[in-house]
Structure formats: C-alpha cells, structure tokens
Structure to design on (110 residues):
C-alpha cells in the first residue's frame, strides 16, 4: 500500500518526510464505485463517488453518490502520484488497461 505523507513532520536528510503510522481497519467501510465526479476550488478538491446500475430502456439513469472525498490540493496531488504508480504496477503485472470511450448521453441522431 502507498500512503500520503504528513506535512507536519520534519524532513529527513534526503528531503523526504517520513512518519511511522499504524492503520486501524476495524471500523472500515467498503465502497464500490463505478462513477466519479470532481469539483475544485482554490482551497480543496472534491471527489464524488457513486454507483451506476444501468437498467435496460432507462434513458436517464440516476447515479447514487454515496461518498464525497475532500482533499487539500497537495494531498490530491499525492493521491494522483500514488494512483499513477499503482496503475503502472498493475499494467506491468497484468497488461494494459483499456479505457472504453464514454457512451453518448444526449438524444440520438434523427
């Protein structure tokens, strides 16, 4: 696992901050998300996570957003780097991850 760094810790001689932490997962919830939306301001980045269960014949599905993650921009960037490293390691082990193009959301051609 890759964890974010704590900005309040002194830097080591190499310039990198380190802190030993213990992770308590006893009250952890698990969330499945196949939808996300991102909003940002100067002070924070917000990631909305939800699940979309498409139903046949439904033209306007409702995505239930179950969680909202608020991050300082510095921590969002740390998360970005951690995700990039994790995805690269996954692709190195299992092969490329293909991203399908998004489905059209507006009315179809006439």
């Amino acid at each position: 696992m890759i964890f974010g760094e704590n900005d309040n810790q002194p830097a080591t001689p190499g310039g990198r901050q380190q802190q030993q932490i213990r992770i308590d997962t006893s009250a952890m919830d698990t969330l499945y998300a196949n939808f996300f939306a991102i909003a940002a301001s100067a002070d924070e980045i917000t990631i909305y996570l939800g699940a979309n269960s498409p139903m046949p014949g439904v033209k306007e599905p409702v995505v239930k957003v179950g969680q909202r993650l608020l991050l300082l921009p510095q921590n969002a960037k740390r998360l970005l780097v951690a995700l990039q490293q994790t995805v690269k390691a996954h692709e190195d082990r299992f092969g490329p991850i293909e991203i399908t193009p998004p489905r059209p959301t507006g009315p179809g051609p006439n």
About this structure: The chain has a mean pLDDT of 84. Helices lie at 73-94.
